[in-house]
């Protein structure tokens, strides 16, 4: 039978019920019993919702209290020794200790799940890591699903991907050496699932879509040859990119089926379809699990129908990947413009699309004529709607001169001119942009929304906040000030709210990690800037002080990366449209007398494609977008950028090609380790290596910061060295911020006298 299935479904709930339940539990306002009950309720609701929409096989095991990789670690008993665990059951307490840390132990490291904005907890491996089934949650869920009379497909993270995503915590050993041991436990798990009557198990192996090293590829066949014989039917799920180069290996595995992501990599189908083995099903992901657009059913059927002609009931239909990367239900969005809404599908709507596609295959297109007509109408209106297509934006891009992405002079000349203009001391001190977002600011924003505060009263509140921030910075003796970003709830949402082409949702939450959810804007149409976005605030801040105030903008790549982006034109083109809007803002700031402008690009690196061979093309257009945004200024205007991660080594040429006058980066946590790469590369412009970690409330001493700065001085010439924290300070409180910045300014001053300069 041709089957409609999903690879995974949002677990946070329609109204973020999981978030509220978790936070109540952590704060001791609810006990474990209540948390477990909420989990059970959510799981049942998710299953019923999928079943009601026509999904034949619902996923079980895709639920997680915090993160599905951590849940896999719990299931496999892969608990690092430092958590002092004795073998046996991993309960909520130990689970959350690994997720969030304890008084004695930092949590597991967190990192991005492939190229998504979801974060997983990195398994820690040592040569002595042992595995044994250590959690009953999965079996409880299976029992729940069976008791509800459902037809469940168990979802597990596959062994290769699980190992691949982990980290070696001991030198001179490869985690791949743990594979045999790991497989023993996986096999036991699969045997137990079979004994409980489970027919299908989906093994998620998204790592297969990366540029896997040969030693990893070589173990694929071995792994599944060991697992398959005593297991339920295994479906290997790949997603996020093509696995065409593994087609040979994958089709000869002793498993019952494969899943391919045809949204990210439609052309890989060819590599599989010819001679696809008769003993396997093929699941095709044609509904985009990573984005919010309504599926173009004609296009999807164009992929499915030829495959169905060959495979018949061995063809399954699915979203491209788990739906956890989508908001839950478009039905919750009552405030969205109806035309825009007609173009969208959130997770719940995607279920119906999968079901309709299956029906079209089984019963013919005639059976779903209405759905096809609606899909066509949406495609037509997206192709022509003036809401999306703005000829003025296209004209502006077309008339952009070829040199629009280059500053008039080279860095050395600019930096000299800027030095003469600003007369800053050696080792100038500054911050990254935001100051503490106090509860009062958040309340003012809420009050503005509800109408309890008038627009003008709100603006006065923000001005007061800016005044305080400027006064405090002057008192601290910082050299380059910021306005503090009090008017911004979020560095992306704020600009999305100001720009044409973006929409904000009321309830479009997506899990980022644990109970943390984000609400990415929807970038649906040509981007333009109807009016200045930040000038009023920055100009006000500058009017309060004789010191330079840095204008503060979010860059085009980050605005793109942290939004749901239109899929009807290349991302590179959309990035350029945003760049043009930011460029206009930069010009307006310059005209308003602002001499320094920072364009943040914290998401620059995470835009990198999964496959290396696609890196150069991305880096080329992303860097160009930044330069288009930043280059239309005089030599004497200083452009800053900020990035907050610590892996630069492999993209340094691209970072240098941004040609920002000053870059501020995260370095304190690695003890300036990262700077070596900058030095070896001979990074040509000025750098502000973060001298203190803003992620912790700890106030670093002057001596500590001087030590870090001395390390920096060893590789960066004094004239090009800036002094600043690692990142923005919005999550911190004022007392710790003032104490830390006081020490930071003192460190810079002490260093100046040490270097024989004026303090
Ligand atoms: N300017 C922003 C801030 O200070 C930068 C935030 C970021 O790098 N993520 O908050
Ligand atoms: Zn940052």
Give structural notes.
This protein is an alpha/beta fold. The protein contains 27 helices and 22 strands. The strands form six sheets. The protein has an eight-stranded parallel β-sheet with strand order 1-12-11-10-9-8-6-2. Helix 9 links the parallel strand 9 (233-237) and strand 10. The protein is globular, with a radius of gyration of 27 Å. The model has no long low-confidence stretch (mean pLDDT 96). The site of glutamine has 13 residues, from loops.
Topology, element by element:
Elements: E1 3-4, H1 17-26, H2 32-52, E2 58-60, H3 68-76, H4 92-100, E3 110-112, E4 119-121, E5 124-125, H5 137-147, E6 152-157, H6 159-165, E7 167-168, H7 179-195, E8 200-204, H8 214-227, E9 233-237, H9 247-251, E10 257-261, H10 269-273, E11 281-287, H11 297-311, E12 315-319, H12 338-341, H13 347-363, H14 369-384, H15 391-398, H16 411-422, H17 439-450, H18 455-476, H19 493-498, E13 500-503, E14 510-513, E15 516-518, E16 522-528, H20 535-543, E17 550-554, H21 556-561, E18 564-565, H22 571-591, E19 596-600, H23 615-630, E20 638-643, H24 652-657, E21 662-665, H25 675-681, E22 686-689, H26 702-713, H27 734-754
Parallel strand pairs: 1-12, 2-6, 5-7, 6-8, 8-9, 9-10, 10-11, 11-12, 16-18, 17-19, 19-20, 20-21, 21-22
Antiparallel strand pairs: 3-4, 13-16, 14-15
Bound molecules: glutamine and zinc ion.
Glutamine is lined by residues 432-434, 485, 491, 552, 600, 602, 642, 644, 727-728, 730.
